[in-house]
Design brief:
single chain; about 260 residues; alpha/beta; Rossmann fold; 2 domains; six-stranded mixed beta sheet; 10 strands; globular; binds adenosine-5'-triphosphate; binds magnesium ion
Length: about 260
């Protein structure tokens, strides 16, 4: 059984069918990339998975647990974490305090049960270990909101990891980053491989091909194809839509829209 599955997921915004009977499976430990042109419905799918949006039809299942209809915080408790593009960071608190708050929120009672001082130091050790894991140890005492964009996004990933997810949702983790920051984020995601499954939405195709065990291509709300990197790279439709030159892709895209309609 797959770790995670979407079954016949449907979402409409008014007359617009943005998620069109999507079936998707993510295996344990897998990095699964979701790619597709702008407006394909990728972020909508992440919102349906995380519980920010409710689907019109279909089911979301994680490790045998039905998530459909659960509020977002219950999904986090069930093992689903999502990076919120920095909005989950407390900008006026230090990196250390951000990490401590996140760890306490998710492992609350195990720290509460300890005597106040021992609990505090255990929380500090846990925060420091997470900082090391994510390469944030040098900025532990800095105020989060003053950090460069790429470092804040790394902190956002660290906060998501504090919940010890079975599945981590990453929606364009490299957006707005320079080459150096992107390379660091890529290495961080690479280092998580095997510890949890990751559903990665990313426009940077070099990053996708470097990271993904499997790739699904979303076009107009439908999964066009799922497969390993070679299958996706060599698929003529994908090449035309996504990897081909701009002019060719516009024409093929229109044809493809007819086909998947
Ligand atoms: N709340 C909403 N109400 C109405 N339409 C919406 C809403 N959210 C998204 N849409 C529309 O749904 C479609 C899919 O949007 P979505 O943001 O999911 O695409 P995406 O694949 O994430 O695109 P991008 O690559 O640009 O991030 C778009 O046509 C968008 O305009
Ligand atoms: Mg999007």
């Amino acid at each position: 059984m797959s770790l995670f599955a979407l079954h016949g997921l449907v979402k409409r915004f008014g007359g617009l069918l943005v998620t069109d009977h999507v079936d998707l499976e993510v295996e344990r430990g897998e990095i699964h990339a979701l790619i597709g042109p702008n407006g394909a419905g990728k972020t909508t799918l992440v919102n349906l998975i995380s519980g920010t949006l409710a689907p019109d039809q279909g089911r979301v299942v994680l490790d045998g647990v039905e998530l459909t209809g659960l509020p977002a915080h219950r999904r986090v408790a069930a093992g689903l974490s999502r990076c919120f593009q920095i909005t989950s960071i407390f900008p006026k608190a230090t990196v250390r305090d951000n990490l401590k708050l996140a760890m306490q929120a998710h492992a609350g009672h195990s720290f509460h049960l300890l005597a106040a001082r021992a609990g505090e130091s255990a929380l500090d050790r846990a925060a420091e270990a997470m900082a090391v894991r994510c390469g944030l140890e040098a900025v532990l005492e800095q105020v989060a909101g003053t950090l460069p964009h790429g470092v804040q996004r790394t902190l956002d990933v660290a906060l998501a990891l504090a919940a010890q997810p079975k599945l981590l949702l990453l929606d364009e983790p490299m957006a707005g980053m320079g080459p150096h920051e992107s390379a660091r984020m890529l290495a961080l995601i690479q280092s998580l491989r095997g510890d949890m499954a990751i559903l990665l939405i990313e426009h940077d195709m070099d990053a996708v091909f470097a990271l993904a065990d499997r790739i699904s291509v979303l076009v107009y709300g439908k999964v066009l194809i799922s497969g390993d990197a070679d299958t996706i790279r060599n698929d003529p439709q994908v090449q035309a839509v996504y990897l081909g030159d701009e002019a060719a892709s516009a024409a093929t895209f229109a044809a493809l829209a007819q086909e998947v309609a």
